[in-house]
Amino acid sequence: MKKTYRIACIPGDGIGKEVVPAGQAVLEALAAVSSFQFAFENFGWGGDWFRAHGEMMPKDGLDALRNKDAILFGSAGDPDIPDHITLWGLRLKICQGFDQYANVRPTRILPGIDAPLKRCTPQQLDWVIVRENSEGEYSGVGGRAHQGHPIEVATDVSMMTRAGVERIMRYAFKLAQSRPRKLLTVVTKSNAQRHAMVMWDEIALQVSQEFPDVTWDKELVDACTARMVNRPATLDTLVATNLHADILSDLAAALAGSLGIAPTGNIDPERRYPSMFEPIHGSAFDIMGKGLANPVGTFWSCVMLLEHLGENAAAQQLMQAIEQITADVSLHTRDLGGTATTTQVTQAVCERIATTA
Ligand code: ATP
Ligand code: MG
């Protein structure tokens, strides 16, 4: 009897509906040659659900996910629904409901990808950005008063707690320690944000004492963007606040060649709840339904999902299949300058998995 992993699939909106089934297909192809299998359950939440029910997911939706081993997510975003509703009503609801406080975003230049950083070899650009995913600038604290009047005020409070900063800092140091270079850059803005970011710096120093074998430095977020372009090889693991890491990881994805290939995991390191894996791109309605969506970001997210389940051999096998197809320019989708379709790339990855087993 094969071990069964229960996976919730939430395609969401736009090209999420194309890339999540593609991800399921490659996971099925892996299961066919492995000692485990998947029991997928699909949830049709998102913009269509909102139009029918007035909410992005059911009130008891989290309960339906609670007993899953992991969640594969597509994208939430719809041109007819305000962004703060699609985001807070689905993705952030899951991230916060399951306290997925570490958002982990690897970046590498895959073989065959024409990345903008020509001075840098793929071996030199190998980053993981750890994004604080539960508080900070996106804590939702704030409000508006005197709406529409000249004296209107609006605030978004960047709320940071000692416990919240300590746990993400410890996660980042541990991750840096597990990587060959044992190198961590703590991204900050404590020169201008003189309360929460100063505490962030203090906690970095404090947690660093627990990891004497990790080499670490501090970098201001603005300087960090320049360093990513000018001296990419000096970076390895980075940890940053919710907003800062959000921006840095889009830059990272673009530097690695395309938004369409970048993966992420929203992780509950304590494993009290399921963790959620997704491509970093959004719903991309401009290319929806045309077979143009690059599924590689979702496939790479599946690699992270498999690692999280402890299926490291299968994860490696999938990563190798991904690298083989990116190395083949005839299998590039349009965002990478090619003409291959979502289905062709998915089939090619499934075939590689079947033949290398
Ligand atoms: P959202 O509002 O949900 O963030 P968006 O319309 O802003 O969605 P993004 O996903 O953020 O779209 O991406 C911006 C652009 O990058 C898209 O309009 C699309 O052209 C391109 N893009 C994003 N993801 C992919 C992908 N997987 N494959 C190909 N092109 C992509
Ligand atoms: Mg977007």
Automatic annotation (TrEMBL):
Database matches in PROSITE patterns: IDH_IMDH (PS00470)
Q: Which reaction does it catalyse?
A: (R)-malate + NAD(+) = pyruvate + CO2 + NADH
Annotated membrane-spanning segments are none
The answer, when asked if Nucleotide-binding is one of the entry's keywords, is no
Q: Cite the entry's keywords alphabetically.
A: Manganese, Metal-binding, NAD, Oxidoreductase
InterPro entries with a match to the protein in the record: ICDH/IPMDH, IsoCit/isopropylmalate_DH_CS, IsoPropMal-DH-like_dom, TTC_DH
Q: Where is the Isopropylmalate dehydrogenase-like domain?
A: 6-349
Q: Name one GO molecular function term.
A: tartrate dehydrogenase activity
What Gene3D superfamilies does this protein's entry cite? Isopropylmalate Dehydrogenase
**EC number, UniProt record:** 1.1.1.83
The cofactor required is: Mn(2+); Mg(2+)
Q: Which family does it belong to?
A: Belongs to the isocitrate and isopropylmalate dehydrogenases family.
| PANTHER family, per the entry | D-MALATE DEHYDROGENASE [DECARBOXYLATING]
What name goes with this protein? Answer: D-malate dehydrogenase (decarboxylating)
